[in-house]
Amino acid sequence: VSTQSGHYGRGAGDRVHEFALKLKGASYMEIHKAGGGIGFTVDKTRAASEEVLLDLYLQRLKLMLRNGTTLVESKSGYGLDAQTELKMLKVIEKAKLLQPIDISSTFCGAHSKPKGMDEICATKDVLENQIPAVLDAIKNGEISVDSIDVFCEKGVFETESSKQILLAGKEKGMMINFHAEELNYIGGVEMGVSIGATAISHLEEISDEGIQHMASSNAVAVILPTTAHILKLKHPPVKKMLEEGVIVALGTDFNPNAYCVSMLTVMNLACIMFRMSMEEALVASTLNAAASVGKSDMHGSIEVGKWGDLVLIDAPQWEHVIYQMNASEIISHVIKKGQVVVSK
Predict the structure, then answer these.
(1) Among residues 275, 217, 269, 266, which one has the least CA distance to residue 246?
(2) For a FRET experiment, which of 94, 144, 251, 333 has its CA 20 to 30 Å from that of 273?
(3) What is the pLDDT of residues 104-115, one digit of tens each?
């Protein structure tokens, strides 16, 4: 049964027009600086009602369930202000009660710098406005939040600003689960390990020293093949990570930039792009993915005492879920906590 790490399912508005720009050679940061990318989705999400966002989110979760996912990490991050970030987190909270997938909620108010703000002002807004608003909502029982995330990147939130935000969340009981070394190496991994990160994602530009730091800790490396593929990024050194003893997980990174709901597709890409074995990809998509959100005690493997989450397939052997490029068609049943929730 699969677990999805790093998923932004609540945003409004697709970015199919940007896909055409990427095919013509535009880079992620070129589109971002021109007002597209995250900023485009922020505008659409701010304008959307909570009801519209919830409907979109439930549709996407249904597709993920059909593809065998029974635990997902869902992030906010398309608000960049307290009001909209809370709106997204409330949508996540409502969805927990309306469908069977277990959801780990991540606050990602530092996903980008809002229009008109520099890094200093954006960091101050997250620390002084967004985090207090999130904590008040938690206290009032409106939401629950498991983790905090930051886009730790050159020209977005540099290492020191990221550290301040992540520690502010950790001090209030949130796990640290953040983006680092996606487009540029800036020492985000070393910083994250030093403050006790649970998981660090992307890692295309991770250094040898960063790999060693992760190997010496329990931090999970969340690898996102869809994003590396679509943005034509340098492949993260997954084989070296595995050889050095890093705990590697896989995720869809579902968002308007990487519109993929299927961990089956992700496993296929990981094996082809990063030379992972099928066994490595399976563990990365189940037990290790559950560990990336602090839930491997009850999820991610078939063991006595854990939730009875199972995927049954109509195939001669389990490897077909990776071998077949559109393997959802061979899923006959999805079982969640002992109950059949998908039947072919």
Answers:
(1) 217
(2) 333
(3) 999 999 999 999
pLDDT of residue 116: 93
Both structure tokens of 220: 């999970």
Q: Could you tell me which residues come within 8 angstroms of residue 331 by beta carbon, excluding any fewer than 6 positions away?
A: 66, 67, 68, 311, 312, 313, 314, 321, 342, 344
* Whether this model's pTM surpasses 0.85: yes
CB 39 within 8 A of CB 111: no
Query: Strand 102-110 and strand 69-75: pairing?
Result: parallel
Give residues with Cβ within 8 angstroms of 135, minimum separation 6: 172
d(CA 191, CA 208): 14
The DSSP code sequence of 107-155 is EEEESSPPTT--HHHHHHHIIIIIHHHHHHHHHTTS----EEEEEE-TT
Contact between residue 176 and residue 198 where contact means Cβ atoms under 8 Å apart: yes
Alpha carbon distances (Å) from 276 to 209, 238, 280, 285: 22, 8, 6, 12
pLDDT of residue 15: 72
The DSSP result for 246-313, as a single string, is -EEEE----BTTB----HHHHHHHHHHHH---HHHHHHHHTHHHHHHTT-TTTSSS--TTS---EEEE
